[in-house]
Structure formats: structure tokens, C-alpha cells
């Protein structure tokens, strides 16, 4: 069993360390020599994909958060409106879907019943369906028009880690491919994004090398009763995923918020000593988002919060208001989730361990939920 875990104590720790490979392997073989994306594996006529005027992503749990990241990227690159729908809500909300709608399902196992039923419903309504999936030959890809496999390798720990990064990577590829097909204004930037993406696996290695301090922080927090997570733009789904990991693994009440929403309610929760993770956008983000999140950190710090801040290398603006700064290498703002989520996974892993819990098999959860 120790060998299966690659020398790590748990599958989850191993899978967190597999993440550079998961991203690299998911990118592999999907570009030609000229750096153009080639997704012949989809076997959908290009004209059909060109006609798409709406995208709905259906998924559950961590996969749905990958879908939320995908929405920001795909809308930005293709200008096609993208909606993210929890798969178990989709069928029951009389969804607006027709032949020009692309329904993208995201599922690690390919067996999640809620997601499968959403895909079947979408097909009945005439939508084109693409499955982003990690498991060859599983049910959801078989029930879809096409599949784009993630190459994360088997994920054993119940709580998803490497599959999440691979799902985000695959949805970037899909978004860039659609942008390439449609030839919009964004087409010139595709190569630049692909180049940035190719550098991400090495940057994840760098993040992993720096995780000693995060392990130490988690080790001191076994008695913590609640943790809050703030993020903005693509950092928002990262905050939600950080909170989900903590609930699943450490059974701690955790909640993720969009940082802009803070003043509309959650700030009332801040009391002295309350730990708050903040996923800070890159200083190179548009619309001054970085400065806005730095102000949020300042506001909660003034009310006594203990601020655990995930920020890009060289971002000095956060330092005066942070109890801890966890550094990640710089990348394109839309790609940042592949780096910023890693410390949150590591934190949940070690906090669960500090509480003496079963990291790989948390109570009440199943790896794949095959009932509705
Ligand atoms: C279960 C797992 C989660 C996972 C979700 C979706 O609830 O415990 O970790 O995110 O199902 O699974 P899928 O296989 O469809 O990605």
C-alpha cells in the first residue's frame, strides 16, 4: 500500500504532489507543431461548434467549481455566454437549451448520477454535449456526443485534488479551441495563453516546494471552529473550493465568499482571531481588482481577523495587513487558480491530519455518488 501511495502517508498527499503531471498530461498532444490547438478527438463537425451561441456547464461538487473557473475563461476568450448549473438543479429549472447550446459536463468519475441525468436531459432537448472526464469508458462520456479526457490518472482519495486542476486545464483548452474556431478578436492571444499554460506545471512544483509553512500553520489550528475564504473573479471559485476541502476533510465549518460581497453581510462574522484566507488577484489583473482585495484584507484585519493571504511573488502591497503571506509564482490572471488552490488543498490535508482524521476516506462521503 505504501508503494501505491508513492511513499506518501495518504493518497491525498500523493495526489496533491501529482498535480504538475496532471496538468502537463492534460495539455499533452493537444497542439500541433505551429502551436494550434487540435481537438480531432471531439469528432464534432467544426461548423456545428462554430454555431454554438450558448454554453451551460453541468457538474457537482469540486467539478462545479472547476466549471465556475471555466466560465470566466471561456466567456473571455470566446464571448459566448456561459452558465454554470449544478447538475441536480439543471433538470428541474426548465433550462433554456436548444440545438445551438453546448452543454459541457465535468466529472472526474464519469458516474455521478446527478450529472449523468443532466446530460441525458440536455440531449433530449437537442443540445450538443461534451463530457470533460477523467475515467475512460465511464458512463457520462458514453452518453455524450463527445469527450475531452483529463489525464490526471486515477484519483483514489475521496476529496478531489488533481482531478480539479486537470478539469480546469481541460476547460481552458476547450475555451481556447472554440476561440480558435470562431476566429474572434481573441485569436492572436491564444498562443500567448498556451505558452503561459505550458509553464504552469513547473510553477505548481514551486508552490509545492513552499508548503512547509502551510503545514505548520495547519498543525496549530486543530481547535479552530470556523474558517472563512475570500476571493474575487477566478479567485472566488478557489475560495469556494478551499472551504469545501476543509468541510470534507477536517469537518470544520468553512465558507467561501466573493470578496466584493464582504460588506454586504459576511463582514459581520469577523471577530478577533477569526482565521480568513484571502486569495489575492494578481497585481496585473484588470479593473484594479488587486487593490480592491487589498482593501478587503485591510478592513477585516482592522476588525481583528487573522489574515492568511495567498499572493503572487513580489506583491508587497499585502504585507502590512497579512498575518501570513503564502506566495505563488506569477501567471496570467485567468490561469491563477491552478496555483492558488494548491495551498488551500495542502492546508485542509494537514488540518485533517492534525485532528487525527482519515484524510482519504472522510466520514459520510463517497468518491462517486451513483444515486440521485
Ligand atoms: C462526490 C465527491 C466529490 C466530487 C463530486 C463530483 O461528491 O465526494 O469530491 O467533487 O462527487 O464527482 P465527479 O466524479 O462527478 O467529478
Q: Characteristics of this structure?
A:
single chain; 372 residues; 5-stranded parallel beta sheet; 10 strands; 42% helix; binds 6-O-phosphono-alpha-D-glucopyranose
- Structural class, please? alpha/beta
Chain-averaged pLDDT:
95
Per the principal axes of the C-alpha atoms, what is the gross shape?
Answer: globular
Low-confidence stretches: none
Task: Give the neighbour order of strands across the main sheet.
Answer: 2-1-3-4-5
Bound small molecules, by name, code or SMILES, are: 6-O-phosphono-alpha-D-glucopyranose
The main pleated sheet reads as: 5 strands, parallel
What portion of residues belong to β-strands? 15-25%
How many strand units? 10
Spatial gap, N to C terminus: 32 Å
Helix content: 40-55%
Rg calc: 20 Å
Order of helix and strand elements from N to C terminus: HHHEHEHEHEHEHHHEHEEHEEH
Helical run tally: 13
Keywords: Aminotransferase, Cytoplasm, Glutamine amidotransferase, Repeat, Transferase
Subcellular location: Cytoplasm
Function: Catalyzes the first step in hexosamine metabolism, converting fructose-6P into glucosamine-6P using glutamine as a nitrogen source.
GO cellular component, one term: cytosol
Structural overview:
The chain is an alpha/beta fold and 372 residues long. It has a five-stranded parallel sheet, sandwiched between helices. The protein has a five-stranded parallel sheet with strand order 7-6-8-9-10, sandwiched between helices. Helix content is 42%, strand content 15%. 52% of the residues are buried. Bound molecules: 6-O-phosphono-alpha-D-glucopyranose. 6-O-phosphono-alpha-D-glucopyranose (G6P) binds next to helix 4. Its EC number is 2.6.1.16. It comes from Intrasporangium chromatireducens Q5-1. Homodimer. GO terms for molecular function: carbohydrate derivative binding; glutamine-fructose-6-phosphate transaminase (isomerizing) activity. One of its GO terms (biological process) is protein N-linked glycosylation.
